[in-house]
Design goal:
12% helix; mainly beta; single chain; globular; 3 helices; 31% strand
Amino acid sequence: MIFNSIEKKFVFSLRKFNLILNLFIYTILIFSLCNLVNNEIDNAFGGSEKGLPMVYDQNLQITQPTTEPLNFPTGIDFLGENDILIIEKNTGQVKRILDGEILNEPVLDVNVASESERGLLGIAILNTKGLVNSDITTTLEESQQENNLNKGLVQVFLFYTETKDIDNGDILGNRLYKYDFINGKLVNPTLLLDLPFLPGPSHNGGVLEIGPDNNLYLVVGDINRVANPEYMTLAQNIEHSKVPDGRGGILRVTVDGDPVLKAGEDGFSSLGDSGLLNFYYGYGIRNSFGIGFDPLTGILWETENGSNYGDEINVILPGFNGGWRHVLGLSTEYENYKNKEFDRNKLILFDGKSKYYDPVFTWVDTVAPTAITFIASNIFNEEYENDLLVGSVKQGRIFHFNLNETRTGLDLPPGELIDKMADVDEELDSVTLGRNFGIITDIEINPYNGKIYVVDGQTKNGKIYEIYPKELAE
């Protein structure tokens, strides 16, 4: 009896040991699998990119205006040739890079929420005498530049998710502010727009550009990745929903925060008077990280992120409707790739004041496109003059596109891209300028020297790169 009891206890203990051992092994396997999946995600979206930045044109070179690390930089603009303002998403700081060195004290530090796509997201600089816009190639004499900086003639616009008292405190809103740049600091904040932030925390958009009309353009996503019906509006083409509240579109606002009510040459002024409709220049936008103006035509272009399909490049004409939430990518191909029928009759057109437009280019295999800009520079040869650049997160690539004769679409190389769609990654080789630039959050042309500036938005080791012809350094 005693032996049987001891044997039973031994067998029970052995089984218990085996169970614990199996659980331990299982835990290790699950942990390893999770790490593998996370690493693959990082590799797919540039987080673990190990290669050095490179361009395929051997006549171009890459340098860095500063080697000091940045914390998730999201945008830059220029006060002078070697005088840059750069914003950091998670710290809420606006830093100044002067002659290659980051100044010890930020020119501004605001309280921001930083979860997911919230944070300090957009910057644009305007000289009240007509400069300083990163898409304008006109320059001022150095003495006049310095006088303008000291006299407060430079205004800086910022878009960020503002919080109360401290970073990541109670959220006050997604807000657009105007500041005066005086004696090296951003002062005299003026709130221009107070926009929604719920449900969030993604699809905030936030990129700013000053248009050729000297008005400010701001792109805002639907702020509703989870598709909560409570936050649907007519700007997402949802019938019987709420009046648009600033989400899901490109907003046009004067530098004083007013809607632009005077009709342009095309006859467009606004989509309506209710809610924030009089601020909308375009809508039906899911999630965007890039807008930019063609320097020759003044037409606005935009990049847009799909879900697992349908990243886009769009030409934003006044009253543009991008079709979201009913379509992504080319409308004629939506059913083939998403098995969903696109019904144009379901679109909200605001009494005919707007129109649906297909994208001019679609990525089937998503790349997460971000910054978009035009090479408004005279230091590059004709191969690049006034062409289009688009940055991406996946593989840190910079795409280079030629425009068609009317500059309302892309002049794509003959072959697989002729259908305006990149079905697989290999089709993009002919339109790739370079890769391995990390998490590209901004691409700008320095208006004073014509160089291409690329911002890598890594969290702890963000960088800025310059791209320009090798002959300039000889």
